[in-house]
Amino acid sequence: MARRKQQAGLGFLVIACLLVFSGSVHAQVETSVAVLPVQSAQRLGVLEDKEIVQALTAPLAEREDYTIVPPRVAAVRLGIITQAITDPAFMQKAGERLDVKQVVACRLSSSAASREDRKNYRYSLAYYDVDGRAMMAMSEGQCSICSPPELGRKIALETKRLYAGPYPLGLDTEPSGAVVYNKGESWGQTPIRRPLPEGSYKVVLARDGYKRMEVEFPMPGDRPLYATLPLEKDPNWTGPIPVAVAPVSPAETAPTQPMEANAPPSGESPAFEATRPSEVSRVEEAMSPQRAWGWRSIGLSAATFAGGLGLTLASLHADDKASDTRLLSDTRQGYADRRDGYAIGSYVMYGLAGAALTTGLVLILTDQPPDSARVSIAPVLAPDGAGVQALVRY
User: Fold this and answer.
1) What CA–CA distances, in Å, run from 75 to 70, 129, 151?
2) pLDDT tens-digit profile of 126-157?
3) Percent of the chain topping pLDDT 70
4) Residue 341, SS3 per DSSP
5) Beta bridge partners of 120
6) How far is CA 262 from the centre of its chain?
7) Nearest Cα to Cα of residue 51 among 155, 125, 146
8) What is the b/e burial string over 140-150, where b = at least 16 CB atoms within 10 angstroms of the residue's CB?
9) Whole-number Å distance between alpha carbons of 156 and 149
10) Residue 195 and residue 205: Cα distance in Å, rounded?
11) Does residue 263 carry a pLDDT above 60?
12) In Å, what is the CA distance from 227 to each residue of 32, 67, 132, 167, 305?
């Protein structure tokens, strides 16, 4: 009897040692990604759940630090999963309670399709970063008249894009506030969170009172990267350079006398008065009435010339109709009369355009400064109606 008790005690000791050893091994393996059970208002079939879970975990096959959360474990640790997976607060709570760094979730809804063995599915996918407290990627889609394998293949394609990245770099310093430089470009002050493609990077951290730090690191292509780097104080730092402010004497603060309009500034020679811009030169910068009339005449010339071109085109069209033998003679005669009228009108318009152009050029070329002889030139109609003339008054 005593021997049996010794054997039982030894067996319990071996089991306890195995449990402790397995617990220690499990503690060394850190779980990074947790795949939550599929959320669905309708009861999922075994094949549907299997296809979706396989689609969510297939891109993670190369990683050994992911786990599929069983429904019972999720019910115990998270309660009844009714919150939307797009809610960051729910995803953050799930990651903290499951003690993981990222959380993957899928929400599914289905309805009957035209075929009994198929359904219409709508799904939402979410990939949440627990350490960064941010949603890294989200995706929504649908699969109409699909079987479970077809649904799984479609979600697998969406999942690959979901995990494609780029993943964020979370960098902080102790103390914070260091400027992060990469190839001369400032990424801002720590703490920073910046998505980076996979590759090797080199950054420089700079903060007043601390030594500059150069850090070279590889950015993974399948997960975020977070780090907090301690800064070392610079013993040679003497602080910012103080700026000395000289006191101002009462004499310097006394109000100055107003300067006369034509008086040169103090310390300048009388020759300054001759070179100072006067009010007359400022008036010269504005366009004189004569020059303004000149430009108006040129604009009128352009508009009149455009009208002449229009009449010319109308005359050519009427000439084509007047030469068409398929039309009646009265119709052709009417087009011929229009052709002559349009031709005469175009000649008149061309003449007016030439006269207006000439007048505008004369007004602009003969414009004189205000200090020269007073000359007034204005366009007037000729008494015989032959065109526009320039009236010059001295």
Assistant:
1) 9, 21, 25
2) 999 998 888 888 888 999 999 988 999 999 88
3) 72
4) helix
5) 111
6) 55
7) 155
8) eeebeebbbee
9) 10
10) 18
11) no
12) 16, 24, 11, 14, 76
Cα dihedral value 378, 379, 382, 388, nearest 10: 160
Angle at 114 between CA 108 and CA 120, to 5 degrees: 15
- Could you read off the pLDDT of 174-228 as tens digits, one per residue? 999 999 999 999 999 999 999 999 999 999 999 999 999 999 999 988 888 899 9
DSSP code per residue over 199-216: EEEEEEEE-TTB--EEEE
Strand 66-68 versus strand 119-129 pairing type: unpaired
Place of tokens 């603060």: 253
pTM of the predicted model as reported, rounded to 2 decimal places: 0.49
Q: Per 3-state DSSP, what percentage of the chain is helix, strand, and coil (rounded to 5)?
A: 40, 25, 35
Contact between 362 and 378 under an 8 Å Cβ cutoff? The reply is no
Whether residue 386 contacts residue 355, with contact meaning beta carbons closer than 8 Å, is answered with no
Judge whether 367 and 291 are in contact, CB under 8 Å: yes
The DSSP bridge partners found for residue 45 are none
Nearest Cα residue to 206 out of 242, 237, 161, 170? 237
CA 216/CA 214 separation, integer angstroms: 7
**Residues linked to residue 194 through DSSP beta bridges, in sequence order:** 169
Two tokens, residue 104:
């993957």
List Cα–Cα distances, 71 to 13, 49, 103, 189, 296, in angstroms. Answer: 33, 11, 15, 42, 86
Q: What is the dihedral of CA 137, 142, 146, 152, to 10 degrees?
A: 0
Could you report the per-residue pLDDT of 84-128, keeping only the tens digit for each? 777 888 888 888 888 898 999 998 888 888 787 789 999 999 999
- Asked if residues 126 and 152 have their Cβ atoms less than 8 Å apart, the reply is no
Which residues neighbour 358 within 8 Å (Cβ) at sequence distance 6 or greater? Answer: none
Q: Which helix (H) or strand (E) holds 322?
A: helix 289-322
